[in-house]
Design brief:
Shape: globular
Number of domains: 1
Number of strands: 0
Strand content: under 5%
Structural class: mainly alpha
Length: 204
């Protein structure tokens, strides 16, 4: 326990102001998503751009490339939420059967592709675990862009596996952040479920 506490304090002391900006905007993104606000996307984009800079500076090229996906999906989601000026925004909804197939395809297919890339083209020591965290997050981001309530489930599966992975990689600060995001996502799911109930017409 003292070892992890020492690492946590050490990392806090070494954290730069820009890293704090990235972390704060990352938390803001999830809070805005929970509140069903479209401003989650610019917050997430800025946070991810800053994060990519630090990943490249530390030569974590695979992780930086994955972060580019989040930026692309954020712009897609931003457009998908707003739509055209005279059209109503996309409403919160449940996955259809076809969308579940796409979700599973992204999760499972993405895991396979990422695993092979990490295993054969990077010095990753945890390709299975790392690929699982990323592929489920990919699926969650796709669902978030389409305002599907199941996005919270996929993102929290990713968070659940990410926490021990981050501790294993001796990144306790980011593990703690992921725990906070996990808790926020639980509340986000129930908030969106309440939105869905309000959207449904009253039964007589």
């Amino acid at each position: 326990m003292q070892h992890w506490l020492h690492l946590f304090i050490q990392q806090l002391q070494q954290t730069t102001p820009w890293e704090w900006v990235a972390v704060i905007l990352g938390v803001a993104e999830v809070l805005l998503a929970r509140a069903n606000k479209v401003w989650l996307y610019p917050a997430g984009i800025i946070s991810t751009v800053i994060t990519i800079y630090f990943l490249l500076r530390t030569q974590l090229y695979a992780e930086a490339a994955l972060s580019l996906y989040y930026i692309v999906m954020s712009f897609y989601g931003w457009y998908h939420w707003i739509k055209k000026r005279h059209q109503p925004p996309v409403k919160v909804s449940y996955n259809t059967a076809d969308e579940w197939l796409i979700t599973l395809g992204i999760s499972i297919g993405g895991w396979g592709v990422l695993y092979l890339l990490l295993k054969h083209f990077t010095p990753s020591t945890v390709p299975v675990w790392d690929a699982l965290v990323s592929s489920t997050a990919w699926a969650g981001m796709w669902l978030l862009a389409r305002r599907k309530i199941e996005n919270w489930l996929l993102l929290n599966i990713s968070n659940l596996f990410a926490v021990p992975l981050l501790f294993y990689k001796q990144l306790p600060l980011f593990a703690l952040l992921t725990i906070v995001l996990f808790i926020i996502a639980i509340f986000g799911y129930f908030d969106w479920r309440n939105i869905l109930r309000r959207q449904q017409p009253a039964l007589h």
